[in-house]
Amino acid sequence: MKPAFFALACSFFLPLVCNAGDELTVISFGRADQQALTKAYYEPFQAQTGIEVRSYSYDGQMTELEQMVRSGRPDWDVMQVESRALRLGCRQGLFEKLDARRIAARDDLIDGAMSECGVGIFAWAMALAYDAHRLASAPTSWADLWDLKKYPGKRGLRRSAKYTLEIALLADGVAPENVYKVLATQQGVDRAFHKLDQIKSQILWWDAAPQPGLYLANGNLVMTSAYTLWVDSAFTTDRNVRLAWDESLYDVDSWAIPKGSPRLSDAYRFLSFTSLPQQQKVLSDALAYGPTNRRAVALIDAKRADSIPSADRNLRHALRVDAGFWIRYGDELEKRFDAWAPPACRQQTDDDEEYQDQPVCQDAYGNLRTAPGSARREK
């Protein structure tokens, strides 16, 4: 029980500083973000409010959350979610519908950062990364990734319909604001695949976030789509890696409050605190994520701001990923894409015998491997 004098003091001061002894359970993806989230948000929030933040990580699956919410006894108070999970969870009643008036910085947030059930933590992006040492001139847009004459060499794309089909349409001249309108039609889908057909033989497919930076550093690629955070890490080992931000794709990870959280008021305080520009600056100083608060960008060192997705110059011609589109059309498009693109080889050796269980697959150098007896190995 709180001392009587503390309770009396709390009747005169703002509730934000009157929660000593309380605690808040925050769930995030962990990974490399955990230390940065602790420094930017958890520790300063606890120091300012007296509310202990208990942080845990999860793998992004919603099963446990759904069980807690359906039982009426959620143990989590705030959780990090990607756009797809946020939209689906909001629709299914797993998250609280937010009162935007309780988020202090709501008017300063970038497009997509404030939604029905979530508040953006940070923006991430996919952009064109290239090896400046191997190219005579710097590419500036996705159209350059298709220019095999001006920029000869292997280029990389994510082995997924999501992001790759958008990139193909952008390269074919579709304006960012029209990409999803076009891709929602059969003609638009055919157009995207036709565009990919033009460079299919020169594509090295990747599916793990670190791969583009490694492939560029190893000389396997001259340019590639890449998550900008991971390419930023590559700058420490390969100074030749550069980013072209025009027509980048961006999205946000968000905080959401599980439906029925018994600490709803404190959860709102946490969301509001983490939306403040000075706190978001701390996160972007540690990791090359973009603040969702526009005012935070002005606080960041100018050189550092060049490498974050939500800087005005990087966001100006960017395409915001439409999670709703991929919820509706994703399964169908991924099925077609998976049948069209060669799978990655599970073994990466020079012995063709190792590839017998995959009639055709692509190795780490972009070469197509064929199992002996299936067809002649294609270079």
**Unreliable runs, pLDDT <50, ≥5 residues?**
1-21, 349-353, 375-379
User: Strand tally, please?
Assistant: 12
* Global morphology: globular
Largest sheet, strands/sense/barrel: 10 strands, mixed
Distance from N terminus to C terminus (CA atoms, Å) equals 74 Å
Keywords:
3 domains; 10-stranded mixed sheet; 16 helices; D-Maltodextrin-Binding Protein, domain 2; single chain; 379 residues; alpha/beta; two-stranded antiparallel ribbon; globular; 18% strand
Describe this structure in words.
The chain folds into 3 domains: 13-123 and 252-315, D-Maltodextrin-Binding Protein, domain 2, CATH 3.40.190; 125-250 and 322-340, Periplasmic binding protein-like II (D-Maltodextrin-Binding Protein, domain 2, 3-Layer(aba) Sandwich); 344-379, no CATH class. The chain contains 16 helices and 12 strands. It has helices at residues 4-10, 33-49, 63-71, 83-91, 142-145, 161-171, 179-183, 186-197, 211-218, 228-234, 264-274, 277-286, 294-297, 302-305, 312-315, 323-340, and strands at 23-28, 52-57, 78-81, 119-131, 155-158, 203-206, 223-227, 241-256, 290-291, 319-320, 360-362, 368-370. The strands form 2 sheets. Strands 1, 2, 3, 4, 5, 6, 7, 8, 9 and 10 form a 10-stranded mixed sheet that branches. Strands 11-12 form a two-stranded antiparallel ribbon. The N and C termini lie far apart (74 Å).
